[in-house]
Amino acid sequence: MTDVHDKLTRSYNMSQIKGKDTKPEILVRRYLHAKGFRYRLHVKTLPGKPDLVLTKYKTVIFINGCFWHGHKDCRYYVVPKTRTDWWLAKINKNIDNDNNTIAALEQKGWKVIIIWECELKRQKMAPTFDRLIEKIKN
After folding, report:
1. Which domains does the chain have, with CATH numbers?
2. Residue 59 DSSP label
3. Which BP terms in the Gene Ontology apply to this protein (predicted)?
4. What phi, psi does 51 have (nearest 5°)?
5. From 60, 65, 113, 131, which residue has the greatest number of CB atoms within 10 Å?
């Protein structure tokens, strides 16, 4: 199956996908800041450049997109019907990178929290934030 867009349109569409300051990331940042937590953003000296670093609690937070990080059993993770092999290889490489990053951070003594994009939808947001605060403080 071929792509439904020409190369220029596809390139433009892909260039609009952000890696920093995404809507889910900003939601979590605003919530934590309102609760009095202070953090650093995208610390380059840590493996994987975590989205949020709470140095006081020796905790890092990754806010993962369900599609890009292959969230199993999630309605937002759907393998594209075009170039399926390529997409699966890319997503599986992302999953491997995530696992390696988590292992490296834990080896350095950091606590790792992963928040999935689907957990930040309106109906799931409150329980997700409650669990987040618990995980940080424990």
Report:
1. 20-137 (3.40.960.10)
2. E
3. mismatch repair
4. -65, -45
5. 60
